[in-house]
Write a structure and sequence with these properties.
By secondary structure, the protein is of the alpha/beta class. It is built from 19 helices and 20 strands. The chain has a 6-stranded parallel β-sheet, with helices on both faces. Strands 15-16-20-17-18-19 form a 6-stranded mixed β-sheet, with helices on both faces. Strands 3-2-1-4-5 form a 5-stranded parallel β-sheet, with helices on both faces. Helix 16 links the parallel strand 18 and strand 19. It is globular, with a radius of gyration of 24 Å.
C-alpha cells in the first residue's frame, strides 16, 4: 500500500466507483492500491463478487449506493454510464463531484503519486482515433530511440491508462485514445497535446445532442498544443469557438503557414511566412496504410502532434513505412472473380461508413446494427451512385431500408429479418454475392454499432469474412461480359 502522506487530498474521503465492469474494476484496483476507502456500486452480483475478491473493496447495489450517496466525497464513474443515470444525478444534486476513470488517472499523475508527471498526448474524434493513436505511438517510439523516452498506446487501445501509470518500467509518454464519454467526465484533464480529427453524429443517445457530443470532444483544444482536422466543417466550428489563433490544422490540400497538408504527393509541414525554405517533406503519401484519404488524414494528424514532441521527419517516415492497420479497418478478407470483399466492421457510424465508401468505386454494401440516433440519409444521398446492391441487417435495419426507399429507390435492397448473428450475416452475404460484377467490391461498413447481435465489431467482421469465403462466387460468362448501360 502507498504511504497515506502521498495520497492527494481529493482521495482521502470515502470514494464510490460506479460500475464493476472492466473500467470500474480498474479504478477500484488503482484506488485500493493507494489504500483509498473504496466502495463499488453495481447490480451484477458476479461483477461485485469479482471486485471484492480482486480488490477487497466494499460493494453495493446501485439502489443502496444512491440512498447513501451523500456519504461519499467523490464518485468515479465508468465511461459507459450516461449523465442522466439516477445515481450520478443524485450524486451531483448532493454536491458530490463525479469524475471518470481517465480523469482520476490524470489527477493522480499530475499529483506525482507515481513519480514525475507523464506527457499526455490525447487523440479523439468520431473516426480514425485508433489508427491515428497507433501511428502517433509508432512515431513517438521512433523518437524514443534518440530521446530515451518510452511511449505506449493506452486508453481505448493498448494498455489501460491505470496500468501504464503503475508499470514498473516507466512509461514516459501516454498516447491516449479517448472517447467522448471519457472526455465528458473530465474537468482538469488538460493534455500536453490534443488532436480532434473530425466530428459527425454519434452517441447522440448518450450525450442528448450533437452539441453536447461535440463539446465533449473539443475539450482537447484546452491543450497547449492543439491540432484540428480543418477539412471538417464541424471541427472548424469548434476551433472558432475557442477564440485561439494558434491551433494547428491538417488538411488534404496545400497547408497554410504552420499547418500540415499534402504537396506533390508528400505529407508536408508548412513553414512560417518569413521562411525562405520550402515546406518540410515528412513522408510519401503513397503507401500509407490504410490506403485512401482517411489514412492520409490520420497520418497528418499524428505527424502534427509528433513534431510538437520532437519527432524528426525521419522518425515520421520510418513509423509510417512500418505501420499496419489492425483488423476490421478496411482489410480485404477475400477475393474471387475480380471482386474484393472488404471488412470495415469498425465503421460503426455513418461518418465512418462515408470514409470507407469514399473512393471505393462500385460496391455491394452491407449495413445495419445500432444507429445510436444517427441519420443515414446524408450518407445514402452522397453515395447512391456507388451502390450495386445493399444487404441490411440488425436492430435499425428498417430505418436504413426506409432511407433507401425514399432517397435511392433504384438500388436493389435486401433486408434480413434474422436476429441470429451467423444467419443474419449469411443471409446478406449470400444476397450480395449474387449481385456483384467483376471490378466491384463487397464492403462491410455497417454505419452502426454491433452490440445488438454481436459481441463487438471484431466478431461481426470475423463472421463476415467466414461468410464471404462461403458465398463468394466466380462470375458466370454472362457476368464477366457485363457492361454498364
Amino acid at each position: 500500500m502507498t504511504d497515506m502522506a502521498l495520497i492527494p487530498e481529493f482521495l482521502r474521503g470515502p470514494i464510490l466507483v460506479a460500475g464493476a465492469g472492466v473500467s470500474g474494476l480498474g479504478a477500484a484496483k488503482l484506488l485500493r492500491g493507494l489504500n483509498a476507502n473504496t466502495t463499488v456500486a453495481d447490480d451484477n452480483e458476479i461483477n461485485r463478487d469479482n471486485v471484492e475478491k480482486l480488490t477487497g473493496a466494499t460493494t453495493l447495489s446501485v439502489a443502496d449506493a444512491q440512498a447513501r450517496v451523500s456519504e461519499f466525497s467523490l464518485v468515479v464513474t465508468s465511461p459507459g454510464w450516461r449523465p442522466d443515470t439516477s445515481l450520478l444525478v443524485a450524486a451531483q444534486q448532493a454536491g458530490v463531484e463525479v469524475i471518470g476513470d481517465v480523469e482520476l488517472c490524470f489527477r493522480l499523475d499530475r499529483a506525482e503519486v507515481f513519480g514525475a508527471p507523464r506527457t499526455w498526448l490525447v487523440v479523439t474524434g468520431t473516426n480514425g482515433k485508433t489508427t491515428t493513436t497507433g501511428m502517433l505511438t509508432a512515431m513517438m517510439k521512433e523518437t524514443g530511440l534518440h530521446t530515451g523516452l518510452r511511449a505506449e498506446a493506452c486508453g481505448n487501445i493498448g494498455v489501460a491508462i491505470s496500468d501504464a501509470l503503475i508499470d514498473p518500467e516507466r512509461v514516459d509518454i501516454l498516447v491516449a485514445e479517448l472517447s467522448s464519454f471519457q472526455l465528458h467526465w473530465s474537468s482538469q484533464l488538460v493534455p500536453d497535446a490534443g488532436v480532434l480529427l473530425n466530428l459527425a453524429d454519434d452517441h447522440i443517445d448518450w450525450h442528448g445532442s450533437f452539441e453536447e457530443y461535440a463539446k465533449a470532444k473539443a475539450k482537447v483544444f484546452q491543450a497547449p498544443v492543439a491540432v484540428a482536422g480543418i477539412d471538417d466543417a464541424e471541427v472548424r466550428t469548434q476551433v472558432q469557438a475557442t477564440g485561439r489563433d494558434d491551433i494547428i490544422g491538417f488538411t488534404l490540400g496545400e497547408p497554410a503557414s504552420g499547418d500540415y497538408g499534402v504537396v506533390d504527393d508528400f505529407l508536408v509541414e508548412a513553414w512560417g511566412e518569413n521562411w525562405n525554405e520550402p515546406a518540410t517533406r515528412l513522408a510519401p503519401a503513397a503507401g500509407i496504410e490504410p490506403a485512401g484519404q482517411a489514412g492520409i488524414l490520420d497520418a497528418l494528424a499524428a505527424s502534427a502532434v509528433a513534431r510538437s514532441q520532437g519527432a524528426t521527419s525521419d522518425d515520421i517516415a520510418n513509423a509510417l513505412r512500418n505501420f499496419h492497420v489492425d483488423g476490421h479497418r478496411g482489410t480485404v478478407v477475400h477475393r474471387a472473380g475480380d471482386v474484393a470483399w472488404v471488412d470495415n466492421s469498425k465503421a460503426t457510424n455513418p461518418h465512418a461508413a462515408h470514409s470507407a465508401l469514399e473512393g471505393a468505386g462500385t460496391v455491394a454494401w452491407i449495413a445495419g446494427g445500432q444507429l445510436k440516433g444517427a441519420s443515414v440519409d446524408g450518407l445514402i444521398l452522397a453515395h447512391r451512385e456507388q451502390f450495386r446492391a445493399v444487404g441490411i441487417l440488425g436492430e435499425d435495419k428498417d430505418i436504413i431500408a426506409d432511407s433507401f426507399a425514399r432517397l435511392a429507390p433504384e438500388v436493389p435492397v435486401f433486408v434480413t429479418q434474422s436476429q441470429d448473428p451467423d444467419e443474419a450475416m449469411d443471409d446478406v452475404v449470400s444476397y450480395v454475392a449474387g449481385q456483384v460484377r467483376p471490378g466491384d467490391s463487397v464492403l462491410l461498413a455497417p454505419a452502426a454499432a454491433s452490440l445488438d447481435m454481436y459481441t463487438g465489431m471484431s466478431q461481426r467482421g470475423d463472421i463476415f469474412a467466414r461468410a464471404a469465403r462461403t458465398h463468394a462466387i466466380i462470375p458466370t460468362p454472362e457476368q464477366e461480359n457485363f457492361q454498364e448501360g
